[in-house]
Amino acid sequence: MQRHTHLGVYGVLIRDNKVLLIKKSRGPHTGKWDLPGGSIEFGEEPYQTLLREFEEETGLTDVQGSILDSLSYTLIYPYRENVMEELHHIGILYEVRLLKNDVELKTDGDGQDSLGAAWIDLNEIRQFPVTPFVEKTLFSRIDNSEKFC
Q1: pLDDT at position 147, please?
Q2: H helices present in 59-139, as ranges
Q3: Whose C-alpha in 48, 52, 77, 141 is 20 to 30 A from the C-alpha of 61?
């Protein structure tokens, strides 16, 4: 079995009791809803990754973030035909705020990793297929009535 470690940066943006998520177009979580974000490019600072990925996947450019958490999980999945892969996914999470209220989402995807962005009601989030980062970041806070800053 092949093993792979992936390091990414992801943003948690909650507004009016809705979280901004993207629908995955590829990888082990295809079709699931995920936090906007992705891989750090060579030489890139994590915060710059957050801003770049947010623009690519959601179309939002007027955002500001602060470190929220870091998480990881492992997953075994079929990488290619007859080849299994064990993924260790590490994420640096930022809490994201909008700097202006009138925003237009990129709902048609980025042509790479996202099929589009959407606001998902936190009261309905458990009805959607989500990635482990969404589950780990949101579900316990919802259950404990915790708020983001």
Answers
A1: 65
A2: 132-134
A3: 141
Per CATH, the number for 2-143 is: 3.90.79.10
pTM, rounded to two decimals = 0.91
- Reported as a pLDDT band with limits 50, 70 and 90, residue 111 is confident
Pairing relationship of beta strands 63-80 and 83-98 according to DSSP bridges: antiparallel
For residue 34, which of 140, 99, 125, 146 has the smallest C-alpha distance?
Answer: 125
Using CB atoms within 10 A of its CB, is residue 104 exposed (0-12), middle (13-18) or buried (19+)? exposed
The residue written with tokens 């936190």 in the block is: 122
CB contact at 8 A, 131 and 73: no
- The residues that bridge with 118 in the sheet, in sequence order, are 21
What is the residue type of 63?
A: V
d(CA 149, CA 139): 16
